[in-house]
Amino acid sequence: MTATEAFVRIILLGTGATAVMDAWLLLLKRMGVQTLNFAFIGRWVGHCFRGTLVHPSIGKALPIPGERVLGWLGHYAIGIAFAGLLVGLEGTAWMRAPSLLPAVAVGLGTVAVPLLAMQPAMGMGIAASRTPTPFRNCMRSVVNHAVFGLGLYLASAAVEWFIR
């Protein structure tokens, strides 16, 4: 596999897996479950670019122009980066013969990013400890990232099927 083909596949895997996660979040939202607020993610990213990484409460931070779009772009960029992590760990051969376990394992491993970095930086504490329902929020994150891992597998299988 050429480097260009691997790069394109990683972009497709990350985009596809993130879309699977978004479909899951949309289903949850329609069932009345609170889901991610991409405007707050965009607000945090926007403030990071301005030099402020940590906030007492991202909801009370000054809004950033275009924060919802920035949040969605950041969400997909992170998904692509996590796809690159999977391929970096498993090798490019995994993309030609994807298997479920490594994809879900990486998806579950990526939950460390929101629990240990993003949530604390947004004022929610480590593992959402400063929220009214920390355990429930952590479990939602774990399930969301497991779904992302499933999406990595499904996206890779779809890309390989389409290429053949």
TrEMBL record:
What is the protein's species of origin?
Noviherbaspirillum humi
Transmembrane helix found in the keyword field: yes
The protein in question is named DUF2938 domain-containing protein
A Pfam family in this protein?
Answer: DUF2938
Keyword Magnesium recorded:
no
Q: Which UniProt keywords apply?
A: Membrane, Transmembrane, Transmembrane helix
Residue intervals passing through the bilayer? 6-28, 69-88, 100-121, 142-163
Xref: InterPro entries = DUF2938
